[in-house]
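thought: fold this chain, then report.
action: predict
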Amino acid sequence: MNGDQVEVRLTPRNNGPAAVADATVRLRWSVELADEQELPARCAREDERTVVCGTGALAVDAAGEQVRVPVRLRERPSEVTLEIDTAWSAGAVDQDRSNDRMAVLVLDTGDEYAF
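observation:
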């Protein structure tokens, strides 16, 4: 995060038990996003704080293609919380839902973080 600019780079992973034809990840910020956004083609605005993005196909025990989502925030907070979760997984049954959600504290330092 740098001022009102935030870029999320997410690499989806499927730990099984079966391949997933397509999935959707939800990115929800603790603050409102600016009205105008230039989102990637596979992403759409869900509400004032949320963007959803398609991941494409995910093979078993493999990483998918990186999803890069730049957004602008309505204001310039010193920190925000970003919640990341699986919104849709093409009907695949996941026995371990504990890894479907993550929350990250993002600080306005201009530094990159990796989780």
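thought: worth noting. The CA atoms of residues 2 and 26 lie 21 Å apart.
final: tokens above.
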